[in-house]
Amino acid sequence: MGPEDFDYDLPPERIAQHPAPERADARLLVVGSGLLDVRVRHLPDVAAEVFSARPLFVANDSRVVPARLEATRRRDGRTFELLLCAPAPGQRVGTEVAAWVRGAKRLREGDVLRAPGLALRLLGRDAVDPRARRFRVEEGEVLTALERGGRVPLPPYIARPPDRRDEVRYQTIFARDPGSVAAPTAGLHFDENLRSTLDMVHVTLHVGPGTFLPIEAEDVREHKVGAERFRVSEEAASRIEAARAAGRPVVAVGTTVTRVLETVAGREDGRVVACEGTTDLVIVPGHRFRVIDALWTNFHLPRSSLLMLVCAFGGRERILAAYRHAVAAGYRFYSYGDAMLVLPQGAP
Questions:
Q1: Which part of the chain is CATH 3.40.1780.10?
Q2: What is the reported pLDDT for 131?
Q3: Which of 46, 148, 284, 322 is the most exposed place for a label (fewest CB within 10 A)?
Q4: How many Å apart are CA 173 and CA 194, to the nearest integer?
Q5: How far, CA to CA in Å, does 86 sit from each of 10, 65, 95, 228, 296?
Q6: Looking at the chain, which residues constitute the CATH 2.40.10.240 domain(s)?
């Protein structure tokens, strides 16, 4: 299969530029044996109807870091915009970090970029991510500098600068551990009222910028994404395994959660255990899903690994047909857009 097998037409006006007035006001497309158009706030009623037992929802509690930063080159004062790829605690003097740089072709090895509380020296290109450059921290600490002077890293298809509202709405209500440079957007629809009606548990995957990249490999099995840090706590592993043992469906809130659970199960003979590490798992059609029974997700970019993952779970023709319905029905797409609940093929 090639990237063209995961393509669809999307009018630009369908790309949400702002969040819904309230989180649970977003629309929800339930993909079962047919299609059901409801609102996110109706999820408890939908869950009672489509699941035979009370589901366990697994959400990502990674916190988005204000990872876009303007920095000036020490030798001439030219300004560059950086997107730090994997901000993490402890990135102090001597640490190497990666960043996407707008205008990177104008940089030379050894250039020092400065921002308030931070200085970074360019080492060269990143060995894994062709869009990234490697830097060594010369002064300061990355997370501290970003919290002080960084901006919300809205994705490039949101054609406006971030504002104060984005500081709240481009963050899930579960957000705890800082480290993502893009929101785990499936979780953006949940508010406190909705959460109080559901059984939920959290894992962590810190989302990197590779989530924005289209598939460029001719064979989708050759597509690569950068490694992303994840963690599954003892509590989360215990509750997920208890739900599975009781025959309760496990609903992944987003592709990030799916990748965490499927990574761990793939390494642990089908079990979810407490662990932490990194994953570069790309899920393609033919993947045998070991853990998740349903997938809650946003509408994703054409030719993206995220759409390919949804197609792998729900069936390519079925998902692309649902996307065509969503376009025709006026659903809002991408990060601030509407949601889907994808049930297994053959589900009611």
A1: 3-64+163-342
A2: 87
A3: 148
A4: 11
A5: 30, 10, 12, 8, 25
A6: 68-149
Are the C-beta atoms of 296 and 186 separated by less than 8 Å?
yes
Which residues, other chains included, contact 94 with Cβ-Cβ below 8 Å and sequence gap of 6+?
Answer: 136, 137
What is residue 226's predicted lDDT score, i.e. its pLDDT? 72
Q: Report the alpha-carbon distance of residue 126 to residue 297 in Å, rounded.
A: 30
User: What are 166-214's pLDDT values in tens digits?
Assistant: 999 999 999 999 999 999 999 999 999 999 999 999 999 999 987 667 7
Q: Would you say 208 and 228 are in contact if contact means Cβ atoms under 8 Å apart?
A: yes
Q: Which residue has the tokens 């509407």?
A: 338
Quickly name the fold that domain 3-64+163-342 has. QueA-like (3.40.1780)
Tokens representing residue 334 in the block: 């991408």
C-alpha 250/C-alpha 228 separation (Å) is 22
- Structure-token pair, residue 212: 């924005």
Answering whether pTM is above 0.85, one says: yes
CATH label, 68-149, candidates 2.40.10.240, 3.90.700.10, 1.10.10.10, 2.40.50.140: 2.40.10.240
Residue with tokens 């062709």: 130
Backbone angles phi, psi at 327, to 5 degrees: -60, -50
Residue 143 in tokens: 């997370």
User: Could you give the CA distance from residue 208 to residue 84 in angstroms, rounded to a whole number?
Assistant: 9
Cβ–Cβ under 8 Å, residues 65 and 146: yes
Going across the sheet that includes 56-60, the strands are: 35-39, 27-31, 339-342, 294-298, 250-253, 56-60, 199-205, 228-232, 275-279
Rounded mean pLDDT of 249-253?
98
